[in-house]
Each structure stands twice: as C-alpha cells, then as structure tokens.
Design brief:
This protein is α/β, with parallel strands linked by helices. It is built from 12 helices and 9 strands. The protein is globular, with a radius of gyration of 21 Å.
Amino acid sequence: MTSETARPAASVRPGPPVRLNAPLPARGRRRRGEPFLTHHVRKTMARGFRPPPSWSVAVRYVLPDGPSGEAPLLSHARGAADALRTGSPVLALIAPTYVSRGTLAEQAERLDALLDRVAELTEDHPDAPAVLFVGMQWASAEEEDESVRRLRALLLRARARLPQVAVCGLSLPGPGKPRTLNAAIEVAELLGCAGVGWVDDDVVLDPGCLSRLVRDFLAAGCRGAVGATKIPHTKEFATSRLLARAKAIAAPATNYPHGCCILVATDVLSGGMPGRYVSDDGYVCFRLLDPALPDPLARLRLVPDARCHYYVAGPAGETRRRIRRLLLNHLVDLADWPLPVVRHYFRHILFAGLWPLTGFDGSGGRRLGIQKALIKWLYFAWFARVGTELYLRGLTGRPLHAVEWAPYSAVPTLTPSDQER
C-alpha cells in the first residue's frame, strides 16, 4: 500500500496513538525470558500453520452507474480512492458478502436494513461522513460476472436511498472475509479515514446501533475498537439451544468487540490483515490488548446500547467444523503474539473460570461457578486436542496451509422480520 494518504476532516481530531502489539515471527524467535517449555510449544505450534503470507487478490472496484450508463470497472485502489474522495470521508463501512449467500432480492433486503442504520449515523454525526463498501466474493467465472451485476444493482439502490454517502463495490475471488476487508482498508487508508468498520451479513442491527458505535468511537479520540453487544437467538437445532445455554453460562471470549459489528481505528489495521490470520476480531483484539493497563481491555470496548442480533450454531456436523475453525484461530493467536498478551487472553478471557487452572468465578454464585468450570473444562479438552494436532504438525514438518471455512448450509440468515418474532 502507498503511504500517500489524505487526512481526516478537521472537525474530527484523532487522539494520541496507542501502543499496538505485533505478532512474533514464525521462525527465528528468541526466548526473551519465556520459559523453555512454553517457548518450545508455542514456536512449534506456530510452525504447524503455514498459510500464504498475504490475503491479496485481484479486485475490481465497482462505482455507481451514472446518467450516461455503466461506470467503468477500476482495477486499482488509487483510482477508487480518487473517485470517492469527494466529501472527505472520516469513516469507512464495509458490508462483506458473497454471491452464493442468497438471491439478489435477499441481499437487497439486508442492504436496506443496513442503509437504515447508516442513515441514522449520517444524521447524528454530520461531521463524520462515511464511505460504504459492499464486498461481493465469487467462486467461479460465472459468479464473477454475477457479482458485478449484483453490485451495480445494490450500489444503485444505496445511491437512491442515501445520495450523500459515497459507495463502492468490491468484486473479488473468495473465500476469506479478510480479503474483502483488506481491499476496503487499502482504499480507506488512501482516503485518510480515521476508522474502518464492518457488519456481517448474518446479523441484524437495532435502530441506532451504528450511530452509537460512532458516538463512542469519536469520544475515545478515534482510537482502539468499539463493538456492538451481541444478542443471541436460537434455531430448531438441538445444538443451537445447547450452545446458547453453554455460552450464557461460560461466556467464552465474549467481553471484547466481535467482527460481526465492529469499528476500529485505521492504524490498527494499517496494511491490512496478514494472510496468517483468519479471525478479524481475534487480530484486532491481540493488536490492542494491553495487560500493562489497569483495564487491559480499555481499548476494546463493547457499547451496551448498540445491539446486534444473531443465530447461535446450526446442525451438529457443521457446528463441529465451526468450533474446530474457532479453536485453530485461538491456537494460532496464542502461538504468535507476545507472551504477556497471550497469558492475559488465556487466563482472563478465553478460559476465565477454568478452576483450578485459572481462578474460580464465583461472581454469579457457587453453583454457577461450578457449572462454568465444567463447561470450560469440556471446551479446554477440545482445545487441547486441536492444539496437540497443531503441535505435531509443526514437529513433523506437515503444517496446515489453510483454516477451512465452514458455513451453515441449513441455517437461514437472520432477517429483520426474524428479529421481531
């Protein structure tokens, strides 16, 4: 990415930069006071995962059609930034999806719901103009053409609804959400945006959700990250009800912003997410978590009155694959980042209440604390099994080269009408 960037609007003044963590190299690490066994295990697990170094792919930037016909497709971020520079956007918002996610009508419905929230944002924060990116990934030549067709239709819809908001489509090969995020981040950096946010296509936002995220983000000097408070909904699957109950008791890694609805300072994501990291919220969390602060999560804030709704889990087989993917993401992060950050995440976020390995959580009473410990031990057993596989792969020189995506084929996307029921 080029270092030539615009500056945020004068009315928005970012606060002083915060300290950002950086991952350790997969090879050539030094112990630096780390216990030998811990260093050996983490270094070996890190070698057990060797994906491509970058998420970079060819992107076609789609702009809204004008009165004279279809706008030409752009192939460079610089050209897209030049076309979007009018209005000096302060925030970049991303709506990532993919062709096979649903029909154009279904994607239009979800975009309409998001545009309602963007309209609230622009009304409540006129000094923080936003640019909206709609990402459409494809998996074949036929889908590539379809992605451009759908983007043109969706951008036309967005332009008609919110003519004051600059919009841009991103047509690119999938899978991998970081590909879409990185494509938008590159343009956002060129525009000088102070923050980058994104909303997944399987969540529904309460009225005012985006506006409240922006309120708190601006109040914090456009630093760190803010995220919506997630409200779970269950489906007819037994795994959905079971996991919803378990999460309500154990609350694993839920006290920091998640990638379904998040707003992040652009400097946290400068240059885009490396190809090694699949979990967007995990990457943001480890960049900003600071155990040296009185509140290590001070720069990772959930906004209580900004709420988003989602479905918990799906069929058992697909849920198992999703949990394995989640555990691999956790393990790669625990292997890669500085030890003080890793220790805090393990003890106080991922496995808080795993008594006696970590402290006993009696905040909700003794009975609930015991239930939480039992659920955490079941989760830890699965975690250790996947971790052992990653360690052995690193030890034997047979690394994983990708973390497989595992969508829920039998679970419909949550829609605004579902939320009302």
